[in-house]
Amino acid sequence: MVTLSQSVAAQVKSRRKARGMTVVVLAQRAGISVGSLSAVESGRGNPTLETLNALALALAIPLTDLIAEPVPETAHVVADVFENAVQAHQVLHRLSGAYAIEITRTWFPPGRHFVGIPHTQGSVEYVFLVSGTVTAGPTNAQSTLAASDLLIFPGTVPHEYTAGDEGAEIVTIIATPNYPENPIS
Questions:
Q1: End-to-end distance of the chain based on CA atoms, in angstroms?
Q2: In the chain, what percentage of residues exceed pLDDT 70?
Q3: pLDDT score recorded for residue 73
Q4: What is the DSSP letter of 65?
Q5: What SS3 state is found at 27?
Q6: What is the architecture, at CATH level 2, of domain 88-177?
Q7: Dihedral of the CA atoms 5, 71, 1, 43 (nearest 10)?
Q8: Which residues pair with 63 in a beta bridge?
Q9: Is the pTM of this model over 0.85?
Q10: Three-class SS state of 128
Q11: Where would you tag: which of 1, 50, 82, 110 has the fewest CB atoms within 10 A of its CB?
Q12: Buried b (16+ CB within 10 A) or exposed e, 143-180
């Protein structure tokens, strides 16, 4: 089993390398010593919350990405029962990395109209229709989906969903960037 220290170590090191930073550069940006950073990356350190926050800020990621429990290799997410619901929404999983990935399952009753909230700059939304029919997508460019259709659009634009006569069950994947496209080097 992976310990929290090992998980933090792996996250800091992989995020630093993904951004092309040396240990020296990350330590400078975070305002910590190279020795402290080396101890964190080796899993030997016992960093304070302030140190972890400084590292997260320097890496331009949420602090929770550094301290989250490791994701198991296999996960079985049991579906919620959506009986007699006006509308139902279940977050199935959230991944972090260059993009935070949120996977949700939503059920809309017949004729239900829902206006989505635009997401962070650089976000992409993927809508997979499991059953029923739904008209969805950017407000100015709606598409009518049938079962097993996939719709992809920029998550930054105003968007809407309207279920057909039999309702609709969709799986939505929202990919949101975790750091700027051109991090300071």
A1: 35
A2: 78
A3: 53
A4: H
A5: helix
A6: Sandwich (2.60)
A7: -20
A8: none
A9: no
A10: strand
A11: 1
A12: eebeeeeebebebbbebebbbbeebbbbbbbbbbebbe
CB contact at 8 A, 79 and 103: no
- The correct CATH number of 4-67 out of 3.30.300.30, 1.10.260.40, 1.20.1250.20, 3.40.50.2300 is 1.10.260.40
Instruction: Please indicate whether the domains covering 4-67 and 88-177 agree at the CATH topology level.
Output: no
Give the pLDDT means over successive 10-residue stretches in the chain (185 positions): 83 86 95 95 91 90 74 58 68 65 88 89 88 93 89 90 94 78 38
pLDDT at position 79: 60
**Could you read off the pLDDT of 82-98 as tens digits, one per residue?**
666 667 666 666 665 66
Q: Do residues 110 and 166 make contact, with C-beta atoms less than 8 angstroms apart? A: yes
Rounded to whole angstroms, what are the CA distances from 5 to 2, 9, 21, 87? Answer: 8, 6, 21, 40
Question: Which run of H or E residues covers position 126?
Answer: strand 124-138
Identify the bridge partners of residue 174 per DSSP, sorted by sequence position. Answer: 102, 125
Tokens representing 94 are 């959230």
- pLDDT for the residue 15: 82
Environment class of 134 (CB within 10 Å of its CB; exposed 0-12, middle 13-18, buried 19+): buried
